[in-house]
Structures are given as C-alpha cells and as structure tokens.
C-alpha cells in the first residue's frame, strides 16, 4: 500500500469512527454537564461562543469570504433563527427534562422529517420503502414518548416533546440551507449563521452567566464545554463535509444512524439510564424506520 493510499485509508477510518462516536457521546456529555451550570442557557451561550471563534478562525485561515448577497440575507437570518437558536433552545431544555437516550433517539428522526419536508416542497420523491420507514419511526416514537411509559418523572414527556420540536427545527434548517450550500462555501456559510445565532444565545444566557458560580465549574464542566463546542460543533461540521466528499452521501447517512445506538449504549453504561421493554421496542422501531427512510 502506498503512502497516499495508507493516508486515505486512515482518514476514512477516522471519519467512520468520528461521526457516530463524537456525535453519539455528545448527548451524554451535555446531560452530565448541565447540573454544573446556572442554567441550560448559560451552558449554551458558552459553548456557542467558543464554536463561533473556532469556525471564524477556520474560515479566516482558508481565506473564505463571509459576504452574503442581499437577496439571501433573509434566508440566512431564518436559518439562524429557526435552525440554530430555536433548535438549540428546544434541544438543550429537552435533554434537561428527558434522558440522554431518549433525546438521541428522537433527534435521530430528523432524516425522516427531512424526507417529509422535501416531499411537501416537491424537492424529492418519497419511495415506498421511505414511507414504510417513516411510518415505522412514528410507531416507535409513540412507544418512547407516551406518558407513564417508565418510572421517569412526568417532565420527561415534555422533554421528549421539546426534543421532537428540535428535530423539526433541524430538518427545516437542512431543507432551507440546501440552495445556499450551492452558492457559498460551507464553512463560511456555517460561520455566518452560527455567529448571528451566538449573539442571540449569549443575550438570552447573559443573566444566568452573571449568576454563574465560576468556582463551581470543575475540569469536567470545562471539558464538556470544549467537547460540545470544538469537537461536536466546529470540527464535527468539518468532518461531516469531508465525509460527504470522501465516502459519499449514502454512506455518510448510514453513519448517522449509529449515533442513537452509541448514545443509548453510553447512557446505559455511564449514566445508568434504562429502557423499559416497550421503550426498547420503540427504540428498535425508530432505528429501523430511520434506516429504511434514508435508503
């Protein structure tokens, strides 16, 4: 094997390991870190500030322009408002109220929502296999989020519903960003939308940042901020783009199907979370349905 092929093989192996592991563990890292912060808003503000700095540095290093054409500025603002600000508010508060495993499984429904949205907007056609996957995912969702499904507190249902709203926001972000991704460099477009969103998230979290007991933050809390901002958001996006170019859309999509599996297994191992029999059945339906819908 030549040096070039060896390097390519190592990069592909890194992609295969990075996407499901780093993104899957993100749910556990956030769930474990939230109690150390004054509020989810304070934690969100800190990690998005750091992610913005890293992305802007990457864009500057690549000498990419951050200019957005006047006709596209409204769409970019909509992306920032719905796809990041609203998506993050529902996500971070949802995971606070429910379990990390539930959150990962429900967020895993985003591709199904993208398929439905693309069909409604006549962007794509939905095959019979995809419809079967969508219906199977919805059946699984009812097992996961119905009240009284486990010994979790009643607030877990609201957490599940907030996470479901977050998945809808992410699907909307994916659909709206498609035409923009063709016209602008991906890293630059993401840097602009994230920077705009960060201003709003910081403004929302500022009162709680002022009330934050900084002495109470140990190395694990700071590690969570670094993990979720640098690895999950900034580098995660870069690796996602590389994966699309190197191993293709289909194989990359398959990798994301593993994210909830990693999250549920890690939540069981590290956080002691358990699924009831009916919830395990629902989780299996969600995973199988997402896999079918993405083929």
Characterise the protein shown here:
It is a single chain. The chain is mostly helical. It has one domain (16-293). Helices cover 80% and strands 0% of the residues. The chain is built from twelve helices and no strands. It has helices at residues 3-33, 40-61, 73-97, 100-107, 110-120, 128-145, 155-183, 186-211, 219-246, 248-256, 259-271, 277-293. The longest helix is centred in the first third of the chain and has 31 residues, at 3-33. It is globular and about 50 Å long. The two termini are 33 Å apart. The mean pLDDT is 79.
List keywords for this structure.
295 residues, mainly alpha, 80% helix, globular
Give a concise summary.
The protein is mainly alpha-helical.
Topology:
Blueprint lengths: L2 H31 L6 H22 L11 H25 L2 H8 L2 H11 L7 H18 L9 H29 L2 H26 L7 H28 L1 H9 L2 H13 L5 H17 L2
Helix pairs in contact: 1-4, 1-9, 1-11, 2-8, 2-9, 3-7, 3-8, 4-7, 4-11, 5-6, 5-7, 6-12, 9-10
